[in-house]
Amino acid sequence: MEISKKDVDYVASLARLEFEEKEKENLAKQLGSILGYIEKIKEVDTSTIAPTSHGGTSQNVWRDDVVVKSSQETIDALFKNAPEQDGAFFKVKKVMELED
Q1: Fewest C-beta in 10 Å: which of 7, 26, 53, 94?
Q2: Letter string b/e over residues 55-74, b meaning 16 or more CB atoms within 10 A of that residue's CB
Q3: Is the C-alpha dihedral spanning 19, 36, 10, 7 positive or negative?
Q4: Separation between Cα atoms, residue 29 and residue 99, nearest integer Å
Q5: Euclidean distance between CA atoms 20 and 93, whole angstroms
Q6: Cα–Cα distance between 78 and 18 in angstroms, integer?
Q7: If DSSP states are collapsed to H, E and C, what string results for the chain?
Q8: What is the pLDDT of residue 89?
């Protein structure tokens, strides 16, 4: 697909970018090449392929959460080396301490 310097100027103005004339020529060629690849990909028949969120077949291997009653000793051991901050991770400590 052919991209002109006018097209590059238009897109650059939308993005608030400025380019020299030589850069505009290079960008026009590169964008044209990219759009050419997209047109080529559109030619592939994908009607028999089921839609997926990604190409991999990985599965979640995390275990289910198990709620247990923790002792103050367990809480202290978990947070022994943690710096004192007010982040989300440290709110867990506060909630666990309140439950005892």
Answers
A1: 53
A2: eeeeeeeeeeeeeeeeeeee
A3: positive
A4: 64
A5: 56
A6: 53
A7: CCCCHHHHHHHHHHCCCCCCHHHHHHHHHHHHHHHHHHHHHHCCCCCCCCCCCCCCCCCCCCCCCCCCCCCHHHHHHHCCCCCCCCCHHHHHHHHHHHHC
A8: 53
Q: What is the pLDDT of residues 47-91, one digit of tens each?
A: 888 887 677 777 777 777 777 677 777 777 776 666 665 555 555
Residue 34's pLDDT band (cuts 50, 70, 90): very high
Let me know: does 37 contact 31? Beta carbons within 8 Å: no
At which residue do the structure tokens 């004339």 appear? 21
Q: Are 33 and 2 in contact (CB under 8 A)?
A: no
